[in-house]
Design brief:
Length: 196
C-alpha cells in the first residue's frame, strides 16, 4: 500500500509556480525547486515525475488558479464592460510586475511548448479558452448592441487574443503605462466602431 503524501500539494505547486515563473523551465534548477518547495529530489520525482512533468503540473496549477479564475470572473459581467475590465486588469498586473516575470502561459508558449507536444497542447488549449471567452463576450455584446456588429465576433476575438499576447510580451521589456495603454485602447475602440 502506498504511503500517504506528507506535504501540502497545493503549497508545493504554488512554490513550483514561483520558481518556474521567475526562472523559466530551463533557468530553474532541481536545487531551486528543492529549496523552494521543501521537498527532497526523491519526493519531487515520486510525487510529480521528472522536471518537465513537474513544470507541466505547475503550469496547470497556474492556469487553474489565475487565468481560468479571471475568465470566470468576467464572464458574468456585461459584455463590453467585461472586456474593458479584463484588459484593465491585465494592464495593472503588467505594470505591477516589478520582476518582469510576465505571464507564465505566454512564457511557456515562447520557451518550451514547441519542444513538447503535451505542453504545446496545454498552451493551445488555454489560448483556445481565452479566445472562446472573447468570442462569447463579443457575441453577447453584438446582441445587446454594445459592440459593433460589422465584423464577425470570431475575428474581433482573435484580434483581442493577439493584443493580449502582445501586451504581455511587451510588458516584460517596456512596462510603461502609456505604451501598454496605447496597445489596448485601439483594440477596445475597435469594438465600439461605427455599425453597432
Amino acid at each position: 500500500m502506498a504511503r500517504p503524501r506528507e506535504f501540502d500539494e497545493r503549497a508545493v505547486l504554488d512554490a513550483a509556480v514561483q520558481c518556474f515563473w521567475g526562472g523559466g523551465y530551463e533557468g530553474t534548477s532541481l536545487r531551486e525547486l528543492i529549496d523552494r518547495t521543501g521537498l527532497t529530489g526523491a519526493s519531487i520525482y515520486n510525487a510529480f515525475g521528472d522536471k518537465r512533468a513537474f513544470y507541466r503540473r505547475a503550469l496547470e496549477h497556474y492556469l487553474a488558479g489565475s487565468i481560468q479564475v479571471r475568465l470566470r470572473r468576467y464572464e458574468t459581467m456585461a459584455p463590453r464592460v467585461a472586456l474593458a475590465r479584463f484588459f484593465d486588469d491585465i494592464l495593472e498586473r503588467s505594470l505591477a510586475d516589478r520582476e518582469r516575470k510576465g505571464c507564465m502561459l505566454v512564457n511557456a508558449a515562447l520557451e518550451v511548448s514547441s519542444h513538447d507536444a503535451q505542453l504545446q497542447g496545454l498552451v493551445a488549449d488555454m489560448l483556445s479558452q481565452i479566445e472562446a471567452f472573447f468570442v462569447e463576450r463579443v457575441s453577447a455584446g453584438q446582441l445587446d448592441g454594445t459592440i459593433r456588429s460589422t465584423l464577425p465576433a470570431a475575428d474581433l476575438a482573435r484580434h483581442l487574443l493577439a493584443v493580449l499576447m502582445g501586451l504581455r510580451v511587451l510588458a516584460r521589456t517596456c512596462p510603461q503605462r502609456e505604451r501598454l495603454q496605447g496597445a489596448v485602447s485601439p483594440a477596445l475602440a475597435l469594438l465600439d466602431g461605427a455599425g453597432v
